[in-house]
Prior knowledge:
The protein has 188 residues and is an alpha/beta fold. Helices cover 34% and strands 10% of the residues. Strands 1-4-2-3 form a 4-stranded mixed β-sheet. Helix 2 (60-71) packs across helix 5.
Amino acid sequence: ERSIVFLNVTAEEKGLLGSEYYASNPLYPLAKTVAVLNMDALDPNGPKHNFTTSGSAKQDLLDETIATAKKQNLAYATDPNPAAGHFFRSDHFPFAKQGVPAISYGSGNDWVEGGVAAGEAAEKTYVTERYHQPADQWEASWPFTGMVQDLTLLYTVGDHLANSHEWPNWAKDSEFRATRDETANKRH
């Protein structure tokens, strides 16, 4: 039996406190948690030609997301700045440490209107002028059409996982694989 949980955690900036708490005190056993699709980095601007994830962890969940994205004409772009360590600083990480396949999805940088130049300029402006600052707030001018595109992809992946008998896993050489494999007998 599978349950779908939509979890809104808080205090990421204070050390992933909300996600660490849930991963340590889950409502449903993490051994039976199919996957985590962290979507706290969606861009409210227009549609993109691509998407990205934080880090470069190899896993079935990422493979499935990439394959589903291709059907929706979205390409995958690897993390443009893995040295920044976003994989280890985002709310999916406490679940990964517990062995649950997890990705932190990010809207792409290749905008349908303006290409990579527009995407990179917008990212630079956001990080410089808004990220973790008082100006980081909702804007009435945002079209949210890019989020619709992202959420369509994430819904499709989540719906498939919720209604299948698949249990994604980490790549054989992943540091999270052994933890996931230890709980394999709890899944059916």
